[in-house]
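Weekly puzzle thread! Below is a chain. First person to post its structure in token form gets bragging rights.
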Amino acid sequence: MMLRNTISSSLVRLTTVAVCASLGACTEGVLLPKGPVGAQEKQLLLEALIPMLMVITPIIILTLWFAWWFRASNARAKYRPQWEYSGAIEFSIWMIPMLVILFLGSLAWVGAHQLDPYRPLASKQKPLVVQVVALDWRWLFIYPEQGVASVNELAVPINTPVSFKLTSATVMNSFFIPSLGGQVYAMPGMQTQLQLQANEAGNYRGLSAQFSGDGFSDMHFQVLATDAAGFEAWVARTKSAATQLDATAYDRLVADHKVGEVTYYFPVSGDLFDHAIDHATKRPESTLATSANAPGAARIPARSEH
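Winning reply:
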């Protein structure tokens, strides 16, 4: 008996340590938001989770209770082979799920409009514009107002809205920063938008959330959230890279299909993002280009996707 108690106590301790260790490893993600968009998404997730638990929890409890109560050895359980209908039960099993669905539908409708990725964030600070191009297998970030660009490193000032404009040079990708919230697709020949903001300084993880080929698992980037002085210092450090990024350099960058390290560019052509959108429609292997070259076909212009 003593040995059994010792083993049970040891198992409890090990389980407790494992659970605490796994929870301690959760230092970032959608449940630990660092910005207003992520906070709203977490709130929406919890508001949807509670009514769903209110439905599934009684069902689980009743299932276990029924299995226990109607066991073969329970003489008190009544056997009613002629029972076939109960108005109260029918009303409960239909009305309660209907009310839950209506509530969740209304919640999702309101939340989807409040979290519209095209909707500007309310702030007294001027938004920072960042143009994003998904490459194989890297992310290119262009700062048109600062005249710099970087690969696989995104720097943003805290407490300042960031207005992302996204496209892809090759295939469709999904841009995602779990700690800041939001997720939007980057598609060749099109432009999508996303509004985010970091309220806490730190280094966050960004990634591609859609499988896009061989280098997908390595298609991640670092997000540096700093104060205004730190962001200006990053811009100055980026300008010291002295590697020009124009249309010709961009075409070479797109043609180089590999996992890349952090790279900085300065100066950057002012119309580079427009060139990136147009370039995707002109690639020989592009479906858009193939359709455009067909007899009698008209060229499809680059357009914004909402």
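Puzzle host: Confirmed. Bonus trivia for everyone else. Residues 44 and 108 are 8 Å apart (CA to CA).
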